[in-house]
Write a structure and sequence with these properties.
Length: 339
């Protein structure tokens, strides 16, 4: 097999041996099919291509010191894909079939699960799209579900190194009653302009504000935001952000560590009161934020002034990753071992 430099792996695509597919046709899901092709044959009029009838998920498999492969809260991803499917009127992929496809694709690609301690993981990408032909705007009558896997390094370069973020006021990722709560491709397409502006300016990503009033923090690119002050973990509640499984877990972990937690609208000005801030998600894990620049207000909010992650952020990061890697007992019941 190819030799990987696991420690230097980017968050990018690397070919693995197999992926799994399943087609919904004539009102029923067919059998799971294993494929070694990286390509799909798609109808030129598929609704997934033209009308964005497409949703995806992202989760990781972690190799433990004990040589066991662990998954973190995979049922939440399965359920969220069902919610996303419903949000754009696609056929849902059943949880039990999701489980079967997930375990199978990992087992078939076991050799691509990065070793314990390398900082890399196997990223798992389930995808569901309208594959039937339509020309009018209406839901497809055929759907394709697939999962591919690829070994990845950290999303934000440097792992737990603090990153800089740019507040974006001239692009909306999602409307309040739109699709922001679903993990659908259209939200990511809508975010591209802002992300390119942020990257060109030397920032890791963009902080989106609520589209209606531009008063509250929504999300940090493909991750949720949190701020910490007075032993309190504060994270936005919004009708246009993805309900992050990592964030849900960090709220529980923070509580178990004796912190208070608040999930509520977070006004932009509150950024100046936080002692620590970060972005969290499956790909991002926890990325501490060093600096947030608000170009319109000409404001800079600074954290991690010594260049190091804050103490509370680091504690949360250690606890979360220890559970995911199997270094600590899973007292929350979040981990499943892939036998
Ligand atoms: N927000 C967005 C827009 C995302 O794409 C993701 C990634 O899935 C997250 C937040 C984090 O969610 P999770 O922790 O479930 O990966
Ligand atoms: C994830 O955190 O799994 C995501 O889906 C982020 C991705 C869009 C890069």
């Amino acid at each position: 097999m190819e030799k990987f430099d696991w420690e230097r792996l980017p968050f990018g695509y690397t070919k693995t041996d197999f992926n799994i597919r399943c087609v919904y046709k004539d009102k029923k899901w067919g059998k799971l099919e294993v494929s070694s092709s990286e390509y799909i044959d798609i109808h030129i009029a598929a609704t997934g291509l033209h009308y964005g009838q497409e949703a995806f998920e992202g989760l990781k498999a972690y190799m433990g010191k004990d040589g066991k492969i662990r998954l973190f809260r995979w049922e939440e991803n399965a359920k969220r894909l069902i919610a996303s499917a419903d949000g754009i009127k696609m056929e849902a992929f059943p949880v039990e079939m999701f489980r079967e496809a997930l375990f199978k694709v990992i087992q078939l690609n076991k050799k691509f699960v990065p070793p314990y301690g390398s900082g890399a993981t196997l990223y798992i990408r389930p995808l569901l799209y309208g594959s039937g032909a339509e020309v009018g705007v209406k839901p497809s009558s055929e759907y394709t579900f697939l999962i591919f896997v690829t070994p990845v390094g950290p999303y934000f370069k440097g792992g737990i190194r603090p990153v800089n973020m740019l507040i974006c006021r001239d692009v909306d990722r999602a409307a309040p009653l739109g699709t922001g709560i679903y993990k659908v491709g259209g939200n990511y397409a809508a975010s591209m302009r802002a992300i390119v502006t942020a990257r060109n300016g030397g920032y890791s990503n963009t902080i989106f504000l609520d589209a209606k009033e531009k008063k509250y923090i929504d999300e940090c690119g493909p991750a949720n935001f949190f701020g910490i002050r007075d032993n309190t973990y504060v994270t936005p509640k919004s009708e246009s952000i993805l309900n992050s499984i990592t964030n849900m877990s960090l709220i529980e972990i923070a509580k178990s560590m004796g912190m208070k937690t608040e999930r509520r609208p977070v006004p932009v000005e509150e950024l100046s009161s936080f002692v620590e801030a970060g972005a969290c998600g499956t790909a991002a894990v926890i990325s501490p934020i060093a600096k947030i620049f608000d170009p319109e207000k000409n404001m800079i909010y600074e954290y991690c002034k010594d260049g190091e992650p804050g103490t509370e952020t680091l504690k949360l990061y250690k606890k979360l990753t220890s559970i995911q890697n199997g270094d600590e007992p899973d007292t929350f019941g979040w981990v499943t071992i892939v036998e």
